[in-house]
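In the current project phase, the collection of sequences with tokenised folds has grown. A representative record is quoted in full directly below:
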Amino acid sequence: MNYYTMADIKKLTGLSQTASYDLIRNLNNRLKKEYPGTVILTAKIPKWYFNKKTKMIGEEDEKENKQD
């Protein structure tokens, strides 16, 4: 399985190091709730999960912009 690290998230999002770690931690918490029993690797997020969640965030932003 492929993972994003803090450095990858930092590059992709433009967030600071601390914010990137926070994002990974939050996404890992969501992943654990959605898929109980999943093994979580500290400071890494599965690429498929990150892409799934950030795509949803982008779609929500588009919906908000269309309503304005």
Notes: The chain has one domain: 3-60.
